[in-house]
Amino acid sequence: QVQLGESGGGLVQAGGSLRLSCAASGRSTFSSPAMGWFRQAPGKEREFVAAISLRGGSKYYGDSVKDRFTISRDGAKNMVALQMSSLKPEDTAVYYCAADPAYDLRQISRTRLPETWGSWGQGTQVTVSS
Questions:
Q1: Cβ atoms of residues 2 and 27 within 8 Å
Q2: The 3-state secondary structure of the chain, one letter per residue
Q3: Which stretches within the chain are classed as H helix?
Q4: Which of 29, 70, 82, 91 lies at a C-alpha separation of 20 to 30 Å from 56?
Q5: Who contacts 65 (Cβ-Cβ below 8 Å, separation ≥6)?
Q6: Whether 2 contacts 101, CB under 8 Å
Q7: How far is CA 12 from CA 22, 74, 81, 85, 128, in A?
Q8: CB-based contact 73:82 (threshold 8 Å)
Q9: In sequence order, what are the residues at sequence separation of 6 or more whose Cβ sits closer than 8 angstroms to the Cβ of residue 118?
Q10: Which distant-in-sequence residues (6+ apart) come within 8 Å of 57 by Cβ?
Q11: Interval 89-130: pLDDT, tens
Q12: Where is 48: in which H helix or E strand?
């Protein structure tokens, strides 16, 4: 099982940007057919943010972040990143990196479900002030 570690969270004003990174260790991320990001705000369920295929050719985004967030991966560095722009207070949450999905990424209805993913990081807090 791969170990995942997120970084880059913090406090930012509305309209600002942040870049989250997730470093994988334990084995090459190329062993995971996809990697993704989820987030969870207090009192809410874990929400799908974005996912990216093995070589970065396919990307999927949650409706609430589409056109504002960009997911990318660097296989050579075993990292996946999430560039967040035009941040809103409702983006405030703990952001989690995920890997080892049980289904093909193209089964998007399953990709959006946290239970599809087998490996998780500890999360990084993102707070957007108004």
A1: yes
A2: CCEEEEECCEEEECCCCEEEEEEEECCCHHHCCEEEEEEECCCCCCEEEEEEECCCCCEEECCCCCCCEEEEEEHHHCEEEEEECCCCHHHCEEEEEEEEECCCCCCHHHHCCHHHEEEECCCEEEEEEC
A3: 108-111
A4: 91
A5: 49, 50, 84, 91
A6: no
A7: 19, 25, 18, 11, 5
A8: no
A9: 1, 99, 100, 101, 102
A10: none
A11: 999 999 999 998 999 989 999 999 999 999 999 999 999 999
A12: strand 47-53
What pLDDT shows up at residue 94?
Answer: 98
For residue 28, give both structure tokens: 């090459």
pLDDT digits (tens, 9 = 90+) for 47-66: 999 999 878 789 999 999 99
SS3 88: coil
Which residues, other chains included, contact 85 with Cβ-Cβ below 8 Å and sequence gap of 6+?
17, 68, 69, 70
In contact, 98 and 120? CB cutoff 8 Å: yes
Which amino acid is residue 3, in one-letter code?
A: Q
Classified as helix, coil or strand, 76 is helix
